[in-house]
Amino acid sequence: MKTSADGKKKWAMLLTKPAGPIPTATELNAGIDFSCVVLESDITWSPTASDRFNEKVSCQKGNAQALGASNYETALTFVREWLATGAGADIAELDAAYQAVIVKDTTVWIYLRETDKDSTEDWATGDEIFLGGELKTDSPTRPGNDGNIKRRVEFLGQNMVSEVLVPAAA
Description:
170 residues; globular; seven-stranded antiparallel sheet; Elongation Factor Tu (Ef-tu), domain 3; mainly beta
């Protein structure tokens, strides 16, 4: 059965490397849930075409190519969250994810679940991670002056996983 994508993206940011190549539900739930501060209309989070190179052997007719390293487009726009007027950013709660990526060349681990579960539901063993892993941050940019105050951060994928299931705890 098909399901609407509306309200189904669950984001988790870890500030320390998970114990294994794929984080457990416990690790994901202990991370920063920033699902309510990512601007939905400006998500760029996907594998892209892999590197390709010619690898034709002498006896082949026509071209032959081989796949190389995987590539990713990863950028998110964070809607900034503030305390009472004039009291500054809500660095301990709603603005915590942006605060974690505000400095260029910071390493974080970010994971996206996009399934039939609502974004408010906790991570569980067996949940599907669409794309996630170790990323380095670029400097935040100001995407525009319309609406809420927000900042866009591009990420450089380092060690990524895609279309994997959250494992059981060891």
